[in-house]
Amino acid sequence: MPGQIVTGRWLLAAPTRFLDGGGVHVARGRVVTVLRSRSAVRRAQLPVLDLGDVVLTPGFVNAHAHLELTAFAGTLPSAGTFTDWIRALLRRKASQSPDDVARAARAGADRLLASGTTTVGDIDSMDLVDAALAGHPLRRRAYREVLDAQDPQRTDAAIERALVRRPRRAGQLEGIAPHAPYTVSERLLAALGRRARRTRRCVSIHWAETREEREWLQSGSGPMTAILSGSPRKSGLDAIDGAGLLGPRTSLVHGNFPDRGDLERLSRARATLVHCPGTHAYFAREPFDFESCAKHGVLVALGTDGLASNADLDMRREMRLAREAAPGLAPDLVWDMATTHAARAVGLAGRVGELAAGSHADFCAHALPGVDLARARPSDLLDALTAGRSTVVTAWIGGRSVPLPAA
Is 0.85 surpassed by the pTM of this model? Predict the structure, then answer.
């Protein structure tokens, strides 16, 4: 170790910790320390890479994406019932070849990296993304999606899929994704719960996204009766909790329609709720209730979802949409949702999403067009960053500069 120091005009170590002229001491892929000033950088007597008039920040952490669906942009309906959208999605997926999926996944990963994301929690339903991203620098939690559509004849095969051991790849971590309580039978949920506890795997579950699913789960009625049978006649959270899947390693995605008492249960379990502002806007849904989440102590992270229900895979846009939908949100909280909160959602708290001793050296340099960095206040910088007004100039993952794909 000695490594080197990477510096710029400003360094954002945390939303309330902007350092004027500070630097990051990087060695062996990790942050050794964060230097607080130009004089500290000089005193370190190490090679210095000065990136100039930029703001150095941790890389974004996208808590929920579907890279395999990247080619679906603009092809699925945003109007009609959610059941209509599911049917269209299934038809579209059935038309894709393995090569189509691989190209889509690679394009999605490139878009994430070009817009400043260095870590993603990615749902993989077809076991095709691993090979497609071999050698890609993006750090990835690969959640293996499992479902049986409440069909007992599919349950054993789904359990077998969850048990398959897969080769480890650099920069990739395993996770389990029971798709949703309405598409995963109680027997399959229980098996996945046992698997998750035994292996201590991170879990991602779509939950409480629509009123349609809540109606079907609790009473077996509504539009979803056209595609599902065998309602468990219980709430989605009861099904998840009953399988032992509600805990600190679980992220619940969407959570737009929780039942009374659900948010308290999430808080007690220390589960993370992942909100996807772009998908929320795509379906023109009523505002997400950030206020109730904060009131009950629920940690909220941000994700992009997939391009089957979003216009981009850009965490800068997700932060902007969150702020536009909830003008009372503090910019520092929004930044945390796209970094440290999302890091916890994917099981990497303290390792990504922040610049601190011991964390992975995953960071980006942002230019802020129209902002005079010599005169700007930290609040000006954070406002511009969370309003999506930055340009990503360069990215580092694991202490190495990685080429940015074309935006």
Answer: yes
Location of structure tokens 């949409």 = 321
Copy the structure tokens of residue 102: 């691989």
The whole-number average pLDDT for the span 312-320 is 98
| pLDDT the model gives residue 407 | 65
Closest to 193 in 3D by CA, of 241, 147, 122, 248: 241
3-state secondary structure of 196: helix
Q: Which two tokens stand for residue 286?
A: 């009523």
Using pLDDT thresholds of 50, 70 and 90, give the confidence band for residue 166. Answer: confident
Separation between Cα atoms, residue 46 and residue 25, nearest integer Å = 9
CA distances from 391 to 15, 55, 86, 355 (A): 18, 10, 35, 20
C-alpha closest to that of 304 among 281, 270, 335, 330: 281
Neighbours of 194 (CB within 10 A): 15
State whether the Cα torsion 197-202-207-213 is positive or negative. negative
